[in-house]
Amino acid sequence: MGRFIIEGGYPLNGTLRVQGAKNAALPILAAAIMSEGEITLTNCPQIRDVDNMLEILGELGAGVERQDDTVKLLPGKASRSVMPNRLSKELRSSIFMLGPLLSRFGRAVCTYPGGCEIGHRPVDLHLRGLAALGAEVSEERGRIICEGTNLRGAEIHLDYPSVGATENIMMAAASARGDTCITNAAREPEIEDLQNFLNAIGCSVWGAGTSTLYIRGGIEHIPSAVYRIMPDRIAAGTILCGVAAAGGKVTLCDICCDHMGAALSKLREAGCLLDQGKDALTIEMNHRPREIKLIETYPYPGFPTDMQAQFFALCAVAEGTSVIVENLFENRFRHCAELAKMGAVITQKDRTAVVRGVKRLSGANVYARDLRCGAALTIAGLCADGITTVDNIELIDRGYQGLDDMLRTLGAHITREDG
Ligand code: UD1
Fold first, then answer.
1. pLDDT digits over 346-355, tens only?
2. Protein residue closest via CA to atom 20 of ligand 1
3. In this model, does residue 360 exceed pLDDT 80?
4. Which residue in 220, 349, 359, 382 has a CA-CA distance of 20 to 30 Å to 209?
5. Cα(364) to centroid(ligand 1), Å
6. Is the dihedral of CA 198, 203, 207, 212 positive or negative?
């Protein structure tokens, strides 16, 4: 088990280029299996979830080559439609492979997906969507089996705007006979990135960013393409929270501010100065953060659940009392107990937490219970007195391309000890 060792009390200063988006890269890598040409993806983040996805593609038989943040795939060589057990269990996004494999082979088998333990994460909307396209879906000893060589377009209404279900259905629908319309679709920017990628490989998808998506079916030959993955709004937001909590002045480049409206407005409420360009942002903070009256997570464009833990760390050192409500996942307050070890004052019941800010947190030995919990604890360590050790950083590496390196570049005193 690896750990970060952080000496708190140093502000963050400098300029940083933000990594490509994990939540865009994973479905796009899955969609690549639909192609028989060569797919080149640039700005693909070097993170463990992407490594796992590439290993899945390799095990299915696809050619996989990677150099820094460029990935070259030869999906035409893939011959298998059964996903490796261990990897599908480890990576929740392995569920995204169902739609594209069904598109390509008429059959897809995966083990119930794993991933961060942020509550019960059902896949019923994914499976109901694929069934609506005519796939036969069955479950056998923990495995999901989808079969259907004759998928047909359909009108599909999602009971909830699930990001993953929207993406899975988009990918399967591209090869169905006839057109598909998804209503109450998720509106996250990563859906738009997937739409752009699908269009780059010859599909016709439109509507992303609104809650109604249209997919023209019938695509047969999927050509080669070169595609650049969008910037990671959550990695960017994490660094911004670090500056808000520890102080300093940082410019982030290669970001899309338009995707970050909800988080930026909360940073302003905390008293940060933001200077916003089209694809760059400078944040400056030279005082203790003010409390944030209410943070409530919602699907995009609401406040993202993936930023809730990092803002929690910020509220823990704010001047007043903040209230945080988590609406998406029932088990996403696992950072509370860890932050409390550092002196955070938190009262939590069900989906609501009340955080009474303290002047200083104290360094402690804490444990990353999930990816964003790990990011929150790292932020807390930056502004705590003394030394904080964050254990289990393998979970942080799932989604951040060297969070420690990024923070060190900005002047943080953080080292990594591999386990
Ligand atoms: C994606 C993101 C994740 C983010 C989440 C919400 C990726 C790789 N992951 O996850 O980082 O936290 O969006 O923004 O893109 N649900 C069902 N049935 C389903 C599917 C989902 O009930 O079949 C529920 C979930 O339990 C949850 C809610 O819908 O309460 C949102 O989940 P969803 O949008 O599907 O998240 P993911 O796609 O898993």
1. 999 999 999 9
2. 123
3. yes
4. 220
5. 32
6. negative
